[in-house]
Amino acid sequence: MNSLPKYSLEPLEGDEWEVRRTKQILRAVVREKEIRRVTTEALAARCSAFLGAPESVKKATLNGLFAGKRKTVSITELTMLSRALGVPIWDLVYPAREEIEVRPGVFLSAADALVADSFTSLPVAGTGNMMHIPGRLVDTSRLITRSEVLADHVERAIAHVRAGIGLGHHLASAAYEAFEFRLSLANYENLYGEAPTLRSGIREVASLTFNRNEVAQGGDAADHFAAQLLSIEHLFAGVQVGDYMLGSSNIELPTDG
């Protein structure tokens, strides 16, 4: 008569919720390891390199982890494994196309579980309902995305100022995005006391002095804003827009750009 296995990365009878979640995360680690064709020995070496201590992580330790002998995995171990595999930590905690047991007996899709954990829920006074507001993960993603949009508009505006074409549209767009980003950045810093690392030039653009409505109308305000953008062009050097590379000598863009 075969006895029931003592250890397994698959759920076993009697496993508690924290064990089931740990096993799901570790199954995701093993899956990513196999997709990348990384041996356990090589993964141990990568983990050791991440820690800055050669041979500090043993192959036998990982074998035990992947055999289901551990009930929990720490956040530091999970960080180490995600970096060693080159996989975002969220892909391990919320593996795609799987159901996540977000609390004992309650399941959500991986996408819904990630969203639920990325938002804060607050009760709406007098209604008994809950209001979902963005959490730090969502706010940070939004700020970085807005900064990339701003950079794109600024780069295009600078290139077209150099070429002397399409100035009104590009300057107005850059001014609008700069104004909106400045508000978003201020709100983020007031809320969290810091901001994520932003690409070169973004803070400088946000600190420029201009009136977005006046820039949109053209004239002196647009000329002043254009001059300010040119003064910080070096911060975006190397970016190619059409036939013009920012920070280089002026190469005119095609008139339909």
Identify the notable features of this structure and list them briefly.
257 residues, mainly alpha, 434 Repressor (Amino-terminal Domain), 2 domains, two-stranded antiparallel ribbon, two-stranded antiparallel sheet, 11 helices, 9% strand, elongated, disordered C terminus, HTH cro/C1-type domain-containing protein, Cro/C1-type_HTH
Would you kindly provide a written description of the structure presented here, covering whatever features stand out?
- This protein starts with 16 loop residues before the first helix and ends in a 12-residue tail after the last strand.
- The protein is 55% helix and 9% strand.
- Helix 7 (136-163) packs antiparallel against helix 8.
- The chain folds into 2 domains: 17-123, lambda repressor-like DNA-binding domains (434 Repressor (Amino-terminal Domain), Orthogonal Bundle); 136-245, no CATH class.
- The strands form 3 sheets. A two-stranded antiparallel sheet has the order 1-2.
- The chain has helices at 17-35, 40-51, 59-66, 75-85, 89-93, 110-118, 136-163, 167-192, 202-206, 212-217, 220-231; strands at 99-103, 106-109, 119-123, 130-134, 240-241, 244-245.
- Strand 3 and strand 4 form a beta hairpin.
- With 257 residues, it is mainly alpha-helical.
- The radius of gyration is 26 Å and the shape is elongated.
- The model is unreliable at 253-257 (pLDDT under 50).
Q: Which of globular, elongated, flat, extended, rod-shaped describes the shape?
A: elongated
Content of β-strand: 5-15%
**Could you spell the SSE succession in H and E letters?**
HHHHHEEHEEHHHHHEE
- What's the arrangement of strands in the largest beta sheet? 1-2
Largest sheet: 2 strands, antiparallel
Helix content: 40-55%
Organism: Microbacterium phyllosphaerae
InterPro entries: Cro/C1-type_HTH
Protein name: HTH cro/C1-type domain-containing protein
